[in-house]
Amino acid sequence: MADNPLYDIRDERFGAMVIGSAALEELYSGCRWTEGPVWFSDLNCLLWSDIPNERIMRWTPDGTVSVFRSPSNYVNGNTRDRQGRLVSCEHGGRRVTRTETDGTITVLADSYKGKRLNSPNDVVVHSDGGVWFTDPTYGILSDYEGHKAEPEQPTRNVYRIDPASGAIEAVVEDFIQPNGLAFSPDETKLYVADSGSAKHEVPCHIRVFDVIDGRRLANSRYFCGLDVGHPDGFRFDVQGNLWTSSSDGVHCFSPEGELLGKIRVPQTVSNLTFGGPKKNRLFITATRSVYSIYLKTNGAQYP
């Protein structure tokens, strides 16, 4: 496998997680910027966002691709809560929404301290029902992925929505452009990407925080940086390894922040998720396309 051009193996642990005979499959092309992949085990399908085309797409294992929602209000990141409902970040509405089982849409957050959010980007749901999301300004920088506007919030924050009261609280306020986020498999830590380097001369990295009582964050620290591109979306496997997007593919980091290896992808990767019946298939959104590859590890996300 050492000479397999698909993989850049930096550590034997990565070699044990990839399959030499597995192919990187392009499932669909023809999008403008793909984002927010989310797997629905109960419906046996993948949803993802095509932000500039203002639509959410759906893929099923028989190869069928269809439009799940259009217009999507420039939806970016997607996830599911523990009840299986779709939770989405809308650039167009500058809000976080939940799609109910009957198809109606509930607004979870669209403002903070009386001012509109910037453009919610990515979202995760804690097992206690709390919704955590990032709010950079990418969706209001131009009319390509939303509606051009001046930010009303003085900072680009990470927020938590309380499941009981619906109150929104800024839990981190010192990011340049917070982007992807994910809890560790045991939910004791929250990882957040800062992709400010895409627009500013600053390091590109992922930070990690301790989660206190499921509500607060403490002990902010550097987790890892990328040697190519900047981090966007990422997810964890059951062993606690972090798989993140980058400009040259997917990078895999150990729980200690060591780069274990890369999967090379021909387009800039924006996001990824684990799926399939055994959650051993990595689905990758990359510029205009969606790819997948089978692994020897399994994703840790729920449901």
From TrEMBL:
Single annotated GO MF: metal ion binding
Family matches, as InterPro entries: 6-blade_b-propeller_TolB-like, SGL, SMP-30, SMP-30/CGR1_Lactonase
Enzyme Commission (EC) number: 3.1.1.17
Domain of life of the source: Bacteria
PANTHER family per the UniProt record, alphabetical: LACTONASE DRP35, LIPOPROTEIN-RELATED
Residue sites binding substrate per the record: 121, 145
Keyword Metal-binding: yes
Binding site for a divalent metal cation: 35, 179, 232
Enzymatic class: hydrolase
Cofactor(s) for this UniProt protein: Zn(2+)
Annotated catalytic residues: 232
Cofactor: how bound: Binds 1 divalent metal cation per subunit.
Record's keyword terms, sorted: Hydrolase, Metal-binding, Zinc
Descriptive protein name: Gluconolactonase
Ranges where the SMP-30/Gluconolactonase/LRE-like region domain occurs: 33-287
Database matches in Gene3D superfamilies: TolB, C-terminal domain
